## 1
Amino acid sequence: MTTATVEPRPQMREPRPRGRIDYLNVDFGARSWLLTTDHKRIAILYLVSITLMFIVGGLFAVLIRLELATPPGDLVSADTYNRLFTMHGVVMLFFFLIPVIPSVLGNFLVPLMIGAKDLAFPRLNLASWYVYMTGALVALWAMLAGGVDTGWTFYTPFSTRSSHSYVIGTAVGVLILGFSSILTALNFVVTIHRMRAPGLTWFRLPLFIWSTYATSLIILLGTPVITVTLLLLAAERLLGIGIFDPRLGGDPILFQHLFWFYSHPAVYIMVLPAMGVVSELVTTFSRKTIFGYHFVAFASIAIAVLGFLVWGHHMFVSGQSVYASLIFSFLSYLVAVPSAIKVFNWTATLHKGSVAFQTPLLYAFGFIALFTIGGLTGLVLAATAVDVHVHDTYFVVAHFHYIMVGGTVMAYMGGLHYWWPKMTGRMYPEGWAKLGALIIFVGFNLTFFPQFVLGYQGMPRRYHEYAPEFQVLNVMSSAGATILGAGYALPMFYFLWSLRSGKEAGPNPWGATGLEWATSSPPPPHNFETTPTVTLPPYIYSRKEADVVG
Amino acid sequence: MLSANLVKPGVLPGALPHEAPATQEPLASQFADLYQQREVATLGMWVFLATEILFFGGPLTAYAIYGGRFSDDFVAASERLSVPLGALNTVVLLGSSLTVALAVRAARLGQFRSVSLLVLATIVLGVVFLGIKALEYSHDYAEGLIPGIRFTAEWRPGVEARHAELFFFFYFFLTLLHAVHMLVGLAAWAVLLLRTLRGRFSVRWNAPIEVAGLYWHFVDVVWVFLFPLLYLLRH
Ligand SMILES: [Cu+2]
């Protein structure tokens, strides 16, 4: 691997001409933001509101890790603890991880990357943000009123019969949020089908678009099922009809089937866009075309399809038929194949590339490493016999945090740094950013790696107290969480700082290919001065590659 | 911002070459031409309908599972529904699909007087459907067949009332979900009728009528599934 440190390209240092109209300075005032139909401004609205939800979810995590620093339940009561981990899960999954990359980066980038003036349905796009806000406010209201203690999985019959918390309020918040996801996904699918610039064929699309497209398919086909499931849950809780409650003739396993039919694919709603971001980062910073473009593109589709067939791996100990479990186990192994293809292709892309270790690539490395660990431990969990041993232990908690935080959040941070110059016209401070990436990587591993060990040793999840022999590892985890929290706080400061004091970015600070870099930073209100025409596949970084594709 | 006059003439299917462009083109600024705008609108509806299938699919799956498990109780419960009223409603709704199909055709041919009459007929048929549905619901209430609220009906020996209640829960859940879709459709037709009367549509631009038609046919098809699944269990 040849390495080179690439300074932000000097040739593009043309300062932003005074008086140039871009999407940020075209209009001012709250009205111009709250009624905007510009996809770029809506992306910023999402960025702000989703960041706030991340902070809320993070505060719950702080309290959880504080409680777990000592073995006895001394900080909060068992009941409060139940509410804390439930609300941490609900906020982080539904209001942060699921929307974050599609709604922030996707909203900003999809029209830019395909050379369109906007999404197909701009007003629907704005509506989706208002729907998101409504869902978030309803859920936050339920939390302030007393919270919910069912776990983010809302399992019946506890959630319908026994729980004395705000189950319906929270469920309604999540249900409303689902419509926001659906509107966004519908917009993406139609836009990608019908609004591509002349010459931009399907196999000239950036891989971020492929993964966003695959994600949108999952959202469209999965989300309605969770919506209806939550409606059924609310009906059972309100009316006392035995849909899921066995004492009334219902079937609790049916709830789990319906719930995981959405919620396993939801993992891919979080991870697929992250993979799309990493594909972009890896090729830009190794200055090479992606290795095996078609494989990476179709792997996204394969994940979207197979992801719908593996939900039963959450139910190995639920009393589901053993034969069903075996099939679900096999299919879960199968879905690891396209993910592995992507990891191999990224590695092969880096091989012999001119690798520039800029912050976004550091995050991409973080993603590849942590996602691989998360994915491989997922295979451990998909093995029916081993799963019985580690089911509902911290092993599971560590596994999915490696996928969701180590995977999705890492990629999101990488993407945010990479496209920040495009979004704001300013560079972030590279030194501080590298420091932040390092802190996050160290803090993350210190937080979650001990949890693999804890789980394997038998510490169950979702208890506010634990046996004293688990304390050392738990203290490590809590210490790591402190570092991780500092790591996440740092970018919030320097990103804000960069808005005023960052270097002018110029249209293409990374020297990257891709239509989003072909327009000015920040882009004008309608993205391009003239509609671009595309004649080459993406990621052509050298004459040689251009010649090969002819 | 939403009505720039940037139409390339002559690219639309059905656009007559000699026809002068309408004075007020409804082209939104993100599109190159009306053809693209039409394609986007219809694809958007198709994608939306795909999610709708899953939306109805969830409760239908649950219904099928319990229908298999408690089949005798479900049949006994289903017998309480009025097949004549259900059948009549099926005919009414199929009739409205016919008027919608004719309206879409008339819009393509530019016969907007017929369009408004046919849309009006659709609205009347839709209202009739909901009226009959309301009549059925009131019978159900009188007989004590409202799950969770007023489920007091007598059942013949051997029928588990709990399971019959479950049947009626799914009956109300599915038909109410369907009725909400009908209401949305009726609102859409009312808006479109107004716009048709104000001359907003032309041979060149009538995609909203076509898109609403797609939606209406879907809602109709859902009923075609619901009717036998709910009303005809005994047969
Ligand atoms: Cu899963």
## 2
Amino acid sequence: MSEEERNVVAPEQVPVADSIVARFGNALRTDDRDGYEGYVVSVESLKDVATVLRDELGYDYLSSVTGVDYFDEGKIEVVYHAYQTSGGPALNFKVQVDRENPILPSLVSVYPGADFQEREIFDMYGVSFEGHPNLRRILMWDGFAGHPLRKDWQEAYFEEENKPFDSRWPGGDVKRSEAENRFGKNVSYPDEFDIDNWAPEDDSSLYAGLNKSGSNGKKLKTDSLVVNMGPQHPSTHGVFRMVVALDGETITDLQPVMGYLHRNHEKIGERNTFLQNMPYTDRLDYLSSMSNNLGYSLAVEKLMGVDVPERAEYLRVLMAELTRVSNHMWAIGFLLNDLGAFQTPALYAIRARELILDIFEATAGSRMMCNYMRFGGVARDLPDTLRDENTVDFIGDLVNERLPAAIDELDRFLTGNEIVRSRCIGVGVLPADKAIAYSTAGPLLRASGVPYDLRRAEPYSIYDRLDFEVCTRSNGDVYDRYVVRIDEMRESVKICQQVMREIPEEGEIFTGKPQYNVRVPKGESYGRVENPKGELGYYVVSKGKTNPYRYHVRAPSFINLTVLGEMCKGHKVADAVVILGSIDIVLGEVDR
Amino acid sequence: MENELNDPNVPVPDELQSAVTITSLDRIYNWGRRSSIWPMVFGLACCAIEMICTAASRFDIARFGMEVFRATPRQADLMIVSGTVTKKMVPQIVRLFNQMPEPKYVMAMGACASGGGPFKEGYNVVSGIDKFVPVDVYVPGCPPTPQALLHGLIKLQQKIDNQSIKAVRWYGQNASEAVPIPVLGPDLLDPRQHALLAQQAGQPGDSAETLEA
Ligand code: SF4
């Protein structure tokens, strides 16, 4: 990336230009609740406001859309966070709608990236979005009873609104919820349910919605074929399903189907205390637990207003960047798997990743689920020794010698490889304007030529002091995404080297006294970090209690999938696997 | 090899030690099976990552003859349920289990597969795969380390060692029956509970109030 781009000064939060406020009159007002920011828009003018924001004010990137059920007020609020791809803070606007009859205009025509997120709100809150092209459940199955994130909806194992539950704490008792359920399982049925007069919903409406018109204009008349790949398929990186309409081997349409790993993070997260959610964030993108921790800490720290000591900041960045390297290693290894180089490149990539996991294990206590960050610092300092070596020397050796060598090795074998090039160049092309419109993030966005990296666009932690480049490429194909990942690993290693040089040798790693139950002031906050897979955001609403009122995760893998169907159309079915691999998804985060 | 297979009660002369092995049918049958357990490529969640690491060079599952991960249930001996079982996924898991030929084994890897784990209370989570298919070995952990997984596999080998060809279910009179596949309704429906469901589901007082009772 060039000099001048790096020096772009992040604009201050510009108040929506007065003229526009005036233009919309009562339809747009500042959100004046305690601890809230942004604007409240009326339902009727939502679409107009969004269009003006995008076209006249440059908020071209819709990062997150989510709902909040304000049960006491009888309202469901839908919250939008929009950004300018040139950098700067969010513009947050909301719209409120009656809980009983929630109907809103869909913003898919303005921001196509809202597609899956609106479906999720429909699924979880029952809000209908008029004008949405494919409004159906996304995480739960069609026919499921109820909208689980509504505050009055209770799961089968419901005990109490908030943890810690009286049955377990402080008594420390054990309780088996299934012993108290009349079916002995985690199930409950609506009152009117009668199994003998009931038939399950099938997938025919899903199949009917596919575009099967590939054979037009050809001499040979061919039939179109619908193929299900997944949820149990070795190339879908977990339990992910693609419904593919094929004309011969060519894809005419592709619908991602997800939810097979929907583990109810958000519902559980709203029962948990703030701190209890920390280990759950590990399990979102389970290949990068450290940076998941960081994003959540930032969101809650913003509300609490605590500072993080210098040494802790360095430790956080060190861990986050090591995570990026290990994640990209994994992504590249498995992209090669998808290309048919079965296991060999992956073995090399995993070998390098293991070195990093050793650091995590020695520091945080676990290889994968680190649970390392706390509000106001980190949980532990580096240990004195690691594998019988001085830890600082071990990490120094790793970031100065071994990781660069491992990256070079991958680079040497793969980047110029004939098969890699012919399978990847020109496949799954995503032009820059589409990448922005579909709210893609991370390497996917940067490979399309958009130099948008949160570490520069809205710096957090100590990234503004560190020297690194934002890696971009211009073609937006699978190959460029691969190269961006290689480049980013190099930059991350560079950051780690700086951290190891500059980290204060002594010092606090935590502000204040460790508490298991923090009270968080009222308000809302949106914390986001540049995760290896893209922008990871946490939207947290606190009502001043010890548990979050709303806890939402803006998962990069989930939103990046919105554009999968677009990218695959016209390619062969074998390429769909590669394109999916180049997005680099993790199902824990897609389905949450 | 001879140490593993030889029956100590039947001495083999020294000069024949390298050429002759005298053993029982059970022993050689089990030895063959326990040394070539083929798992299914089947990753559900975070635990699958540790399963892949176990298969990679550092922990090297090939030392146990288990490196041949098969993508189809028809060729697999072992289903490692590596992750959270959700209601939406469980019909597929049961179907895969039914498609595996005998002899087949199931390992519940991690807290989630064993009992729901950290997500147990979630509305889309099944509290352990053993609610639907029989489990042979449970491996605790979240995720279990590769060492723990290997330990679980060794336990499975021990289980195989103790089986006898005379008694195993797959050579018995009654071929093992398929597990009925759960159905996705307003909530997950287990066909084995049809009678109970017909009688009780939909009665007012289901769900939350039952808990207080
Ligand atoms: S046991 Fe832990 S690591 Fe394994 S799938 Fe469950 S949450 Fe993930």
